[in-house]
# Entry
Amino acid sequence: MSAIVQARELSRWYGIVMGLNNVSFEIEPGLTGLVGPNGAGKSTLIQIITGQLQPSSGDLTVFDERPWNNPRLLKRIGYCPEGEAIPKDLRPLDWLKGLGLMSGISEDDVGGRCEQILDRVGLPREHWSKRMTQYSKGMKQRVKLAQGLLHGPDLLVLDEPMNGLDPMGRQEVTNMLKQLVEQGVSILISSHILAELESLCQSILVLNWGRVLASGSQKEIRSDLKNWSEELTIQCDAPEKLARHFFDAGVLLGFDLDAQESLLHIRVKNATEFYQRFTGLLLGSDVTVHSIRSQSRSLRNIYDKVTT
Amino acid sequence: MNAPPPVPPQSVTKNSDLNPAFARALKGIWLFTWKSQLTWKRLPLLLLGFLALPVLIFITTPSPKTWAYSHRPQINEPDEDFNSFSRRLSRDNLRLTKTQKSGLQKIFFEEYERSQTILDSAPAPEGGTDRLSPEIEACHQRILERAKPVLDEKQMDRLDAFSPRDKSEGRRQFLDQVWERTTPFYRLLIDLYFFIVLPLNCVRMCGSVIRDELEADTLSFLTTRPLSRAKLLVIMFLSQTGWLQITMLIQTLLVFGTGWFREIPDLGSLFFLFLLAQIFAIWAWSGLGLFLGQVSKRFMALALLYGAVVEMGIGRIPTNINNLSLMVHLKTLLGKSDVLQNIYSWPAAGVAGAVGSLLFGAAIFLSLAAVMFTFKEYHRISETKK
# Structure
């Protein structure tokens, strides 16, 4: 499958401030999460992808075309920016109609299309006649999402789309995004809510300080981290005894005991080597193990690892 | 318990079906322009803007009737003239006796009142005071005739040399040379509205076209549409100037309506020429505003600087270099009106050249703005600080 977004040695400066620092990556079709703390370069990358900024050096292509001032490509991209800003004094249908006409939807179709898309993002009809200044954060987010979907884009770029949505709204949007992906739409989504990205995204791109720290599927990233220290929580009947056994075997970096819960938290030196010896070590310890949980399975843990 | 999420219908629009044409995009932007301007919240300010100038004209431009009354010929106060004559006789040792005094005073009062009644009885032509001198002379003759039984010969000689005075003479000599009845109307219409309010309004509205979007953080909704940046800017310009043409047309109708109400002569001949000049003026000033808006956030300050240097400075140099001034061309256009030419005496030149220059100016400013917008990146945080 060919990549929809390709970046080669891409850099972007704002004066002396580095937005992106010589990054190269590819984004495959499907749902990709963009993860990183504030100032990581997420918004810069999104703005380059959506043709609002130009690279200072290097190259970025979307569907094999450069986005800057490229109407042919922008026809295939939908964008939902971060924040609550939407035009004052307009009603959602008027705004969407205007944007729809600008996008090239015919006058005959634009009205129906706008109503359809507002239904799709779940904005209740009783709010359609209100001016958008009266909207709640969640309602604004839905209208913003609608304008990104209006012209049927092949790539939808969403910057923090879940902000302001209540849990039910988040679930609705998540379902909608999944259905869009099933229909062949690729989605690049930036969010701080890592748990949602984890359940939603097939692959992720981790940014920090303008650098790509990790990219690919979650499985691939974990695989890349195989030489990094691994954290496990083991519930057993004799945590202290098990800790001593692991320590004597020379596989531990450190451990914590929770005697009340009969939990042993361990950090291992080499995850691959540890898991190869794991069964033998447990059998040799003569300790009854009730459960084993890897702390490194969550996206939060991956994120923490690559950004610290 | 959460309700099941709505099942989204299949998308009917594919991006391959899209046809982002110029006219279609213009309709889209036009929708934003008028819908966001015409709101209940903005309506009071809009009405205030529309009514301010007509009200000012209504207040400062008197009707012909009012003007005629305030400028009617007025003979001087009788007691003032009588006292003056009496003092003159005293200086010449021809002092009036008590009987003479009361008799002559009565004659003065009666004849002055008679003359003023005659002057007030027929409305004077606009600004005309020609009937006053004959009436003063007639009044003087009547006083002389009636005073013969009252005064002696020497006193009569003095009275013969004394004449009733014109009360408003001094004021008329100064004011009527510079300020006619219609002057406030034309000064407000041309000097204030056409050469100050209109340019500033155009620059303000078009200079903020991109800035307002940027400050509201909504520019990205427009720049991520499938339109080239230059095309987007031209469309925004046309939409904004369209709105300005409509609002300024309403303003002009109100101003001319007030002028018609105040019975300003020859308004009809000026009206269409003025509208034509206004159409070109709006394009030219809006083009300037759009360009200055691209240059800096403080585009109004730049506009004032431009006005001082180019319009007030270079535009007044009596060589061909003054063609750089937009006002020079607008004056050429308006100078085709005899009414305005009589007031302003603008230098005559070809209308076609003036129209061409204004359109060329608008095109140059628009092109410069489009080029800047094409290559300029708008990053909200950095840009709003400029």
